[in-house]
Structure formats: structure tokens, C-alpha cells
Amino acid sequence: MTDQNLAVIILAAGKGTRMKSKTPKVLHKLGGLPMIGHVLHTAAELGAAHTVAVVRHDRDRVAEAILDFAPSTIIADQDEIPGTGRALEVGLEALPADFDGDVVVLSGDVPLLDSVTVGRLVDAHRSRRDDLTMLSAIYDDPTGFGRVLRDENGEFAQIVEDRDATEQQKLVHEINAGVYAFTAAAARDAMSRIGTDNVQAEKYLTDAAGLIRGDGGRIAAVAVTDNWLVQGINDRAQLGATAREYNRRVLEHWMREGVTIVDPDTTIIERDVTLAPDVEIQPGTQLRGATTVAEGAVIGPDTTLVDCEVGAGATVKRTDATLSVIGEGATVGPWSYLRPNSVVGAGAKVGTFVETKNTSLGEGAKVPHLSYVGDAEIGAGSNLGAGTITANYDGVAKHRTVVGKHVKIGSDNVLVAPVELGDGVYSGAGTTIRKDVPAGALVVTAASQRNIPGWVAKHRPGSDSARAAEAASDTSNE
């Protein structure tokens, strides 16, 4: 349900210099989504009536990505005035003028923060009737972070930045996590009064706490028990560490849902993947995009599936597949390559060193080994022998091959598209098929075999082959 008294403002204007990348920081991926995508999911799960994203660096690229994930998001542009305080200020200006509920402030580079944790923050904020409630965390090494100072009663007293802290204050391990819940009135008032009279000449969001407290407002800091939830990402080392932790959590979730993951250290499962109970994931497997795997399927080892659908009881090993459907009880691999729009029917087989593209295999059809099958339809029960190739490209356009049901294609065949083979066709080894074949026919194009005795001795005298042939001839004459 939509909470009409809640707005979310996401700060995503930073350049992310320490990422050393042409890609804006919030668009770097983690678990298959850009960081900002995770934050937008959290905002959506909160059910806020309004979501605002404040952007600046590489504005159009970031805004486009945001709107792809959440089209109803309001985009607010930070101007030349720097600082997180100014970012929140323009975010507030983007809200309806009469909005007087609560405002949650999130950062676009804190991807692990979930809606449950933020929801608890909002509940605490509302139950205490605070003007400002913030998340804090206890760090073993708080160096570089703003400290949360408390009074003798354990209540919030102030935030002091690391560079401004006394030696005594630096001994405090509770840090400001940068996640806030304001009343809209308190936020608007504080942002309007924050100045830029500091070394960085920026409007600091953290200055709001001092202003609100100075006015006698109520402020609280709520410490999280899981510091990963508020882990910000500023460079690629932090991105890598956070990605590992995110993946660990995803794997743990699926294992608790009844999925066997043989080696979590070598397994990657992205956010939008869906797995059924009794799926088994072998080592070296990556499941990406919107991949779904049905009950009892075995995936891996050494397999990557991107946006694929795998049916119950299927086996897929040492395979790279994208945008493909693998039917119930089918077997794929090892060393198979399924390009987009490949459909492997129930009980069908795609075997060793086989590549498919824009192709459907009917129920029980088999392409066991060493074949390329592109732009083709293979009927139920048909078998393509080793080395079969569908020649689908004439240098200008792609053409389609249709193979009927229970067709037996011999080894080393070339099917030159467009071509259609009727049901029950057989083809001989080494056949090149350029014309349609009627149902039940045998198609062959091989010339009669011709043996030329003595050719090696005459044309390759003194060679190893000639000597071997001579020895074999002597033996046969004994």
C-alpha cells in the first residue's frame, strides 16, 4: 500500500572520482543491478507516495537508468551549489508544495540497505515523534567517518566530522550512516539555513542535526546491528567487497529455500534469479539476469546462464547460454553454446561442442556433438549426426532450416538454407542438402568411391606413408 505521508529522496549527484571510471558511480553493477537499482527497489518496497532522485554528474545517463527502473521517479537536478545539504534541498523542492509528511533520505551508493531496516527507522521516527531520526553503526575502525555523540542519558547530542573531532571524540566508535528520516517541515527549515562557510564551501547535510537540536527539536540515532547494510561504495575495492557480501547473502537465502549449492565460493547468483527447491548448483556456476530454474534441475559445473528458463529435472553442464529455454528433462553440455532464442524441448539433447542460435529442438530431438544449428526448427525425435551444419547465411540475409519429426541426419551434413526436410527423412554421411526433401526419403549427394592403387608410391616416394604402404603390401603377399 502507498504511504501518502512518506517521501523518499535518493542522493545520486556525486561524480564518484575514486571509482576512476567513465561510468557514473551509481551505475556500477552489483548482483546484476546498478547500485541505484538496488536503492530504487528499496524505495519502492517502502511504498512511499513520492520518490525523488537528485542527479548532477552525467545527468542524462543517470536519469535514464533511474527512469528505466522506476518510471514514476521524480528527477531533480542539483545546481552549482555543492554538497549533500544542497542535494536534499533541491530534492525537497521537487516534492509537492503541500507535502508535510516524513522524508527518508537514502544514498545511491549504499546498495545493501533493505526496506525492512529503513521501515524500522521510519517506525522509530514516527513513534518517538522525532524531527530527525538517523541510522548509525558501530565500527571497529571509525576513521574518516562522522561520529555520533551522545549525552549522559544516551540520547543523541551531535554529529562531529572526523576532521573536526577532538582526540577524545575520535575514540567514539558510533558513526553516522548517512540515512535519515526527517519531518518535511524540519528538513525544509534546516536546509534553508545551512550555509557554505566551511573548508569545502559546501552545504553539509549533517549540519541539519545541529540546527534542529539548537531549535529544541527531537533527534535520535538508531544503530544498526549489521554494518554491511549501510556500507557505502566509493571505489572499486569497496564495490568488490560489497558484491561478495551481497552474493553470499543471496546464496544463503536460496540454500535456506531448499537449493543445494555445492561450492558457494565459486557460485554467483544475481538478484532477479528464481530457483525452485531441490535445484542443485555445481561449482563454477553463474546465474544471471532473470534466469529461472525449476525443481530438480542440475546446473553446472562451469556454467553461465543469462536470462534463461530451465525446466524441471534438466541437466546443464559446462554451458554458456543466453535468452534460451531448456525444457523439462533436457540435457545440455558439456561445452555447449546456446545463443539467444534457442529452445531445447523436453527430453531433448544439445551435446558437446554444439552451438545453437534462434533454433528450436522438439521433444526428444538430439544434436549430440560438433554441430552448428542456427535459424532452424528441428522436429521431435530427430537426430543430427556429428558435424552437422545449417548454412543459414548467404552473405546478405539469414534463412531458415526446417527439419521434420524423427529425421536422421548423417554425420558431416550441410543443410543449405532455406531448406525443409519432411518427417522421417534419412540422409547419408557427408551429404550437402540444397533442396527440400519429401517425407520418408533418403537423401545422398556423395559421389561413388574410387580407389587408385599405387598412388602414394608414385606421387610420394620415400615418404613415411610410402614406406608404411610398402611394408603392408609385403605382409599381405606373404
Number of separate helices: 9
* CATH fold category name of one domain: Spore Coat Polysaccharide Biosynthesis Protein SpsA, Chain A
Determine the mean pLDDT. Answer: 95
Unreliable segments of 5+ consecutive residues = none
Q: Which structural class is indicated by helix and strand composition?
A: alpha/beta
First-last Cα distance = 96 Å
How would you portray this structure in words?
22% of the residues lie in helices and 31% in strands. With 478 residues, the chain is α/β, with parallel strands linked by helices. It has a domain at 3-230: Spore Coat Polysaccharide Biosynthesis Protein SpsA, Chain A (Alpha-Beta Complex). The strands form 7 sheets. It has a 19-stranded parallel sheet that branches. The longest helix is centred in the middle third of the chain and has 21 residues, at 236-256. The protein is elongated, with a radius of gyration of 33 Å. The model has no long low-confidence stretch (mean pLDDT 95).
